[in-house]
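This section describes the prediction task in plain terms. A model, or a person checking by hand, is given the sequence of a single protein chain and must write out its three-dimensional structure as a string of tokens. No templates, partner chains or ligands are provided. The sample shown here is typical of the held-out split.
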Amino acid sequence: MYLFELDSEEPLVAKIIAVSDQLATDVKLGKITPDWTVEDLLRYYSKYDVVLSRNDLYNMIKQPPLMNYITNIQGDNVIFKGQKEKPVNTEPPPAPEDQQKIVKKMAKKASKK
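The expected answer:
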């Protein structure tokens, strides 16, 4: 963190930078795991009197200062800088009639045992 960042006209921005920098440092040092959900992150910020909504967070990761710490939000998971993104399952779920067939097959197998 740079001193000029703390001299910002917006005290909330300075607080976000300080809290985000502390979070990134703790993740790098292994003090906390990088597996965070959006709710976890919002609770972490609120613990330091930075109250954000989900929409605020989604908008803020696209611009500094948060874009320097968070790469993406996948579903409900927060992906920090340097952390690998999890592969997205692009396979559609089975159709309801297929699900019924699967359940019947499983029941048939279970009844044979």
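For orientation: Helices lie at 3-6, 11-28, 38-47, 54-60, 96-112.
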